[in-house]
Design goal:
heterodimer, A: mainly alpha, 3 domains, two-stranded antiparallel sheet, 69% helix, B: 1% strand, globular
Chain lengths: 620, 307
């Protein structure tokens, strides 16, 4: 049997088995999910690369699935993160109700994502896209909390995106009578697709919804917050990247062949790319500003995900080799560090009962491993050397600067610097500050939850010095997208101006200096060291009492908020709310005309006849 | 092998010079400030005396692992950044014999990020002590950083775009070959960066992080002994780094140590002088300050650079 079909079959039948097995034991669905993903992963990594080819003709349609080098990069992300998250989910979902539904949808969406990246025709692409959307929707509303703001937003925006995509697919089909992506690309290259621009814009609209790009992002913060942490890691880590995958497909594979002569005003590809890049930059800046005023750690990370997706969009939209590489690098990294962060917050939620930073503090001694992985991922997120985040940030900046997008660099830099604020907020809010008696009972999460996070944290550390490990698959994928001679080095970054950064020197210098300082500070006066708790402090000469908690948690960045107040004034959700209220009013008005009452309609007929009579009379 | 030994020796010498210069500048400032305020003031070597006292304390307070790591992060960041900044013009006699370092393996973007490394460590250490003043100080510091980074980045991007390079050495070479300092060829960018430096040095009116008599020195308030001493050393090296970076970028770099000292001292006195005649801003005022004229100047500088 075909390997690719087998992998999908394992995931989809695993989903059904997981759903049914809940009747047998509450514990079973999580185990089945883990086993299915493990099996799919083993199958994928033990098979030779050329077997992932699958064709099926049904009802006059040809479904073509194929995993090329570009899809393979995304498959690594999907399988890797899903495997770790499902391992984590075994412990995380313990004792929760309705696990069958959760794991059913989780496996469905993973299968859906694999289908999307493998699809080589638009029909199967759309089918898998909808499987992914619906299963993720069912997980978002799984807890049932705050359905109106979470579920409906997500459903409405996903539906809008889906209709846009469907329209685009139909436009393309009516032009050239094929759904096959390779044939479509060939047709574009031969200038046989008159509706290329309209179709591309519609497709990009659909993908922007999934990538949570401004102004289509409003569903994302709530959806990421409401989904259980084990799934949010996948949701934010890879599911949102499907939007990026689609954008890459449209911008880099399809629009590249757009004929500039057809569009007299502007060279359309560059124009759409610029607009998309600016939307990405604005998304990054605004989402960062909203992230730093959140008090719930998960919501903070949700906004941060929206911001990070903004950076990734910029890279794809600019479309130079360095920017695309930066973007794909950041995409993988985002899966790693945001996956870790959501899992870590899930661990905090499970152990301490909440992720509200105003309620807990000082967990560093209680959950040291969770703190460690959070710290590593936060450093990566902030882009501070020597961890992997710096590599991605560096490439993005250099790509923008060398490409002349200087003002975009400043916007991106602003949002990255503001990201330090929420980075600190989350570390401080959960793990630092004074220890409270309420959290004295909190214990570290079980090993099955710690292990996946530690694996990802170690990857982030390794990629900080050896990003070449990741450049290799990215460069292969970019070759498929049509970039020739993508160059990369294992530990050296370079831009088109020939400036380089040698990560090996950086890591070595940091390592040597750090070890020297560590030895000095640890050994010096070790005997005279006095360990104190967080209450043994003096604040302006006063010593706080045992039951007093002085941790600073409320209005954490109030001064910054005040300084940036004009940027906080407009909220996209309010605009949409106003829009929906306006539509409500319009529909109410329509209802006054179409009352559904026969007598009213009879009156309309009479009025019409009278008007007709008067008109006829006048003209005669 | 011999080359490596010389490089390591050079690195050690660079560090010692940076440390000594930074500490002395701090001492001179204390003295000058005292004289301006009609006090006698400490000697200009007071900082060395303080450091000696701190490092010889017998008891040290251990606040937990992040509190332990924070000073290390600061000194690590300081030394690392120092290794990637050309203290003198590369290729000159002074440089080759005493200051060979790694500057051509890192560029400006790297430096921008590396300079945050220490602050992040400091912030985490301060957070773990549990002192509310520390956390308040940290949030103020981070907020202010978002303020002054904007004009600073505008200025740097202008230089990078205009001269098609992101390396400091190339920018120094441009100045050496043309004979014109960047502060004259790109005056708007220089002014933007200069205003940003006021925030970087955290003298009045931008001393909102330490905020004496308000936050009781903020983030460092719970640190003492060897920890505070190490932080002080790291901070001094950082002062030297920032000054050298500005000299390299805008003042044509330096060919010898005396030249470097004159240029850095002149630059250093700008935030100090500015501080003497200004009371402390509130945090939002400080941020707004940087987003006002300094940013406008930076934008003008950038527009000039690209057109």
């Amino acid at each position: 049997m075909n390997t690719l079909a087998l992998i999908l079959l394992i995931l989809f039948s695993g989903a059904i088995v997981a759903f049914l097995s809940e009747k047998v034991s509450k514990f079973l669905p999580s185990l089945i999910a883990f086993i299915s993903i493990t099996a799919a992963g083993i199958l994928f990594y033990t098979s030779p690369a050329d077997v992932f080819n699958f064709k099926l003709s049904m009802a006059g349609l040809n479904f073509t699935l194929k995993i090329d080098e570009f899809s393979r990069l995304f498959v690594h992300m999907i399988i890797g993160l899903s495997w770790l998250a499902s391992m984590y989910a075994v412990g995380y979902m313990q004792n929760k109700e309705r696990q069958g539904t959760f794991f059913f949808n989780m496996l469905l969406s993973i299968g859906g994502m694999l289908g999307i990246v493998a699809a080589r025709d638009l029909v199967s692409f759309f089918v898998f896209w909808e499987i992914m959307t619906w299963s993720s929707f069912l997980i978002v509303v799984w807890t049932g909390a705050d359905f109106r703001r979470t579920g409906i937003w997500y459903m409405v925006f996903s539906a809008m995106g889906a209709y846009a995509m469907l329209m685009a697919i139909m436009m393309i089909y009516s032009d050239i009578h094929t759904f096959n992506i390779d044939e479509i690309i060939a047709a574009i290259a031969e200038q046989r697709l008159p509706h290329l621009v309209e179709a591309s814009v519609l497709l990009l609209f659909g993908f922007s919804v999934k990538a949570a790009l401004m102004p289509l992002h409003v569903w994302a913060p709530n959806a990421y917050t409401q989904a259980p942490a084990a799934y949010t890691a996948i949701f934010s880590g890879v599911l949102s990247k499907m939007g990026i995958f689609g954008m890459a497909l449209v911008l880099l594979s399809m629009l590249k062949f757009a004929n500039p002569a057809d569009f007299s005003l502007v060279y359309i590809n560059g124009f759409i790319g610029q607009i998309l890049a600016w939307l990405g930059a604005i998304t990054a800046a605004i989402a960062t500003l909203y992230a730093l005023i959140q008090t719930d750690a998960k919501k903070l990370l949700a906004y941060s995900s929206v911001a990070q997706l903004g950076y990734i969009t910029i890279g794809i939209a600019i479309g130079t080799p360095l920017s695309v590489m930066a973007s794909l690098f950041l995409a993988v990294l985002h899966a790693l560090f945001k996956g870790t962060l959501f899992l870590a917050m899930g661990a905090v939620e499970r152990q301490a009962g909440t992720t509200d930073m105003t309620k807990i503090s000082g967990l560093i001694r209680r959950m040291p491993w969770t703190f460690f992985v959070t710290l590593v991922s936060i450093i990566s997120l902030a882009g501070v050397p020597p961890l992997a985040g710096f590599v991605g940030k560096w490439m993005l900046y250099e790509a923008l600067i060398t490409n002349g997008n200087v003002f975009m660099v400043v916007v991106v830099f602003f949002s990255s610097t503001a990201a330090f604020l929420y980075s600190y907020r989350i570390l401080f809010g959960i793990f630092l500050g004074q220890e409270e008696d309420d959290t004295a009972h909190v214990k570290e999460a079980p090993l099955s939850m710690i292990l996946p996070m530690v694996v990802m944290a170690l990857l982030l550390i390794a990629l900080g010095t050896y990003p070449g490990l990741l450049f290799d698959p990215i460069a292969q994928g970019m070759t498929v997208l049509g970039f020739e001679n993508v160059t990369w080095q294992m530990t050296v970054l370079s831009n088109v101006w020939g400036n380089t950064v040698n990560l090996m020197y950086i890591s070595t210098t940091i390592g040597v200096a750090f070890v020297a300082a560590l030895l000095f500070l640890t050994l010096k006066g070790r005997k005279g060291s006095r360990n104190v708790g967080t209450k043994d402090i003096s604040t302006s000469g006063e010593i706080p009492l045992e039951h007093e908690n002085l941790t600073y948690q409320l209005d954490f960045f109030k001064p910054f908020e005040r300084a940036a107040s004009p940027l906080y004034r407009r909220k996209m959700t309010k605009i949409y709310d106003d829009l929906s209220n306006g539509l409500d009013a319009l529909f109410d008005f329509t209802r006054k005309i179409y009352t559904g009452n026969g007598q009213t309609y009879a009156l309309y007929v009479v009025i019409f006849l009278v008007a007709l009579l008067i008109y006829v009379q006048n003209t005669l | 092998m011999e080359g490596l030994a010389i490089k390591i020796l050079g690195a050690v010498i660079t560090t010692i010079v940076a440390f000594a210069v930074g500490m002395t500048y701090g001492g001179i400032t204390r003295k000058l400030t005292a004289r301006v305020q009609n006090r006698v003031g400490p000697t200009i070597f007071q900082n060395f005396i303080d450091l000696l006292k701190l490092q010889s304390k017998k008891t040290n307070i251990y606040h937990g692992v992040m509190g332990h790591f924070a000073p290390m992060w600061i000194i690590t960041a300081a030394i690392t950044v120092l290794m990637f900044i050309p203290v003198l013009h590369p290729g000159t006699a002074w440089y080759n014999s005493w200051f060979p370092n790694l500057s051509f393996h890192g560029d400006l973007i790297f430096l921008l990020y590396m300079m945050v490394f220490g602050s992040l460590g400091m912030a985490l250490g301060a957070g773990q002590t549990g002192n509310p003043n520390s956390a308040i100080g940290v949030t103020r510091g981070l907020s202010q950083m978002v303020g002054f980074e904007i004009p600073f980045v505008l200025a740097l991007v202008a230089l990078m775009v205009q001269y098609q390079t992101t390396s400091i050495q190339d920018i120094m070479t441009v100045q050496r070959e043309s004979g014109v300092w960047m502060m004259f060829s790109n005056p708007f960018s220089f002014l933007a960066a200069l205003f940003a430096s006021l925030g970087m040095f955290r003298y009045s009116p931008f001393d909102i992080v330490g905020a004496p008599a308000e936050l009781a020195s903020g983030p460092v308030s719970e640190f003492g002994g060897k920890y505070l001493g190490t932080m002080m050393s790291g901070g001094s090296i950082f002062a030297f780094i920032k000054l050298t970076l500005y000299v390299d970028l805008f003042l044509g770099g330096a060919y010898s140590i005396p030249e470097l000292l004159i240029k850095t001292f002149a630059l250093y006195m700008i935030p100090v002088f500015y501080g003497w005649v200004n009371p402390r801003y509130r945090t939002e005022q400080a941020i707004r300050y940087f987003w006002g004229w300094p940013t406008a100047l930076g934008v003008i500088g950038l527009l000039i650079a690209i057109f």
